Amino acid sequence: MRTFVILFSAICMMSVSSCATRVVTRPASVTVVKTPPRNYKVVTVKGKRYYFWNGKHYRKTRRGYVFVRV
Questions:
Q1: pTM for this prediction
Q2: Partners of 60 in the β-ladder
Q3: Which are the contacts of 49, defined by CB distance < 8 A and separation ≥ 6?
Q4: Where is the signal peptide (predicted)?
């Protein structure tokens, strides 16, 4: 009986597969704008500060301004 339980548990462990998969994504190429143009506007959306010019929203980072979708 003991060997049957061990054999049964080993078969169950081998046949059960995990549903977890690993998804690896590459970061998109990001264009950083060092200085904004003179006619930019500061826009607040949901309590966060964005900079708007040329029909696009940008977020300020350490490296400069990065395009974001709001």
A1: 0.57
A2: 65
A3: 42, 43, 60
A4: 1-20
**Element housing 58 (H / E):** strand 56-60
Residue 50: strand pairing partners: 43
70: three-class secondary structure by DSSP: coil
In this prediction, residues 48-64 reach a mean pLDDT of 93
Strand partners, 28: none
Q: How far apart are CA 54 and CA 56, in angstroms?
A: 6
Residue 66, CB-side half-sphere exposure with 13 Å CA sphere: 8
Give the side-chain half-sphere CA count within 13 A for 15: 6
Q: What tokens appear for 8 in the block?
A: 């049964």
Give the model confidence (pLDDT) of 2-54 as tens digits.
887 887 777 766 665 666 677 878 777 888 899 999 999 999 999 999 999 99
Name the amino acid, one letter, at 50: Y
